Amino acid sequence: MNPSPVRHNAAVKEPMREEHPAIHVEVTHEESDPFAAPTLFDIKDLNVYYGGFRAVRDVSLSVGQRQITALIGPSGCGKTTMLRCLNRMNDLIEIARVEGQVLYHGVDLYDRRVDPVEVRRRIGMVFQKPNPFPKSIYDNISFGPKIAGFKGGMDEIVETSLRKAALWDEVKDRLRESAWGLSGGQQQRLCIARCIAVSPDVILMDEPCSALDPIATGRIEDLMQDLKSEYTIVIVTHNMQQAARVSDMTAFFTAEVNEEQDRRTGLLVEYDKTEQIFTNPADERTENYVTGRFG
User: Fold this and answer.
1) Burial degree of 13 (CB within 10 A; 0-12, 13-18, 19+)
2) If residue 117 lies in a helix (H) or strand (E), which one and from where to where?
3) Would strands 96-104 and 39-50 be described as parallel, antiparallel, or unpaired?
4) pLDDT tens, 274-286?
5) Are strands 53-64 and 39-50 parallel, antiparallel or unpaired?
């Protein structure tokens, strides 16, 4: 799918180094050139403030279309804050302020004429903890299209979304049962299906497997690989093995610590092909993190 840009409100296997074998990561996804992908997001000099505190500073990077981009780094380095900038979720925090540019298809998402509701339809989010609505499986999927005013065949949307999320065969005979009766992994795939149902361009994932067991995690990772043929995915993860397995590009963030105020400001250290980040990073801080010396 290749939707038009967000409108202004007109209507709007080479393993890691072996010095620290306790953490061993293999880059196993297909060989490709992530830099060859067309740019979807172009982020320039991004700074995020909560009140007078700067939580993220001076981030510039580009995200390619139909790739998986991983954001990694220690706790408090601004990964989730950065992710939430991509669909204006930080707008929902009263004291939050974003400076710089987040260009999406060349349009600045923070232009005052851009409708944030339309931004969040095109750029969906899956959260750390599965959060199905207290409704049936069917109603969870149909909710978004109904709110968006869709008048067509809802059964088809529900089935298509669940199939894309690799969940249809497991739930097709109980669509009218409560979504809360699903396992944790199934609930997370349901949330992905719910996101897909409104035909987004991008899926943001904030540690989507942190609450799941290894089997459910594997299914979500396989699903991400399937979905990137249609969607751009940006994922925050603390799991470096996961980042290495699933992503095309990886951004490593670290935190500058203000000892007096006990606060951390996140900054981007290095952004490169995932294989490069995990086998031959350019920055010593990145190497220290991915080899387990730090973080």
Assistant:
1) exposed
2) helix 116-122
3) antiparallel
4) 999 999 999 999 9
5) antiparallel
Structure tokens at 178: 């409560």
Structure tokens at 214: 């290894």
CA angle 62, 63, 65 (to 5 degrees): 135
pLDDT of residue 128: 92
Three-state secondary structure string covering 123-188: EEEECCCCCCCCCEHHHHHHHHHHHCCCCCCHHHHHHHHHHHCCCHHHHCCCCCCEHHHCCHHHHH
CA dist 274 and 243 (Å) reads 8
Q: In what order do the strands lie in the sheet with 123-126?
A: 107-108, 96-104, 39-50, 53-64, 263-273, 249-258, 68-72, 232-236, 202-206, 123-126
Determine the Cα–Cα distance for residues 279 and 150; give it in Å rounded to an integer: 47
- The domains found in the chain, sorted by start residue, are 35-133+205-290 (3.40.50.300)
* Token reading at 286: 């990145």
pTM of the model: 0.86
Task: For residues 228 and 68, give the distance between their C-alpha atoms in angstroms, rounded to a whole number.
Answer: 7
| Residue 224 CB contacts under 8 Å (≥ 6 apart), including other chains | 68, 205, 233, 235, 246
- Predicted confidence (pLDDT) per residue in 105-151, tens digit: 999 999 999 999 999 999 999 999 999 999 999 999 999 999 888 88
